[in-house]
Amino acid sequence: MASEIMYVRELQSLPACAPVFHRGGIDEGEFRIAATPAQKVQTVGGAIRPWAMCPDDVPEFLRRKATPKSLERIRHFAEAAGWPERGEAVAAAGFTVEQEGLKQAGEHI
Fold first, then answer.
1. Is the pLDDT of residue 62 over 80?
2. 77 three-state secondary structure
3. Distances (CA, A) of 59 to 87, 98, 99, 105
């Protein structure tokens, strides 16, 4: 709780034009993790933007078929983060990839 309060205070101290980004893999966990701070940023009138979380940028060999339940949860968390179009893109692509997989493969997307 204290860390959330500090986080909101930090965000409030930023100029309104300062961009805030979340970088992660393209999987349920990353979208869930992003949703919480994104909602906090929204309370102070800002927005967190996804950084390099587009399914079109993931090499074929890293893609893992996702279950319908996982894709639905990604859509849910993307909506909560304020990125409904990103959730729809991941659902349409039908796969996930964890950030660790991207790092191990040497991909910097």
1. yes
2. helix
3. 19, 13, 13, 10
Token code pair at residue 48 = 């967190």
Nearest to 45 by CA among 78, 20, 23, 24: 20
Q: What is the separation, in whole angstroms, between the first and last Cα of the chain? A: 32
What DSSP string runs through 18-70?
--EEEE--BSHHHHHHHHHHHHHHHHTT--EEEES--GGGS-GGG-EEPPHHH
Name the 3-class secondary structure at 96.
strand
Q: Please, which pLDDT band fits residue 26 given cuts at 50, 70 and 90?
A: very high
**Domain-by-domain residue ranges, the chain?**
2-104
Measured CA to CA in angstroms, residue 26 lies from 9, 52, 104 at distances of 28, 9, 15
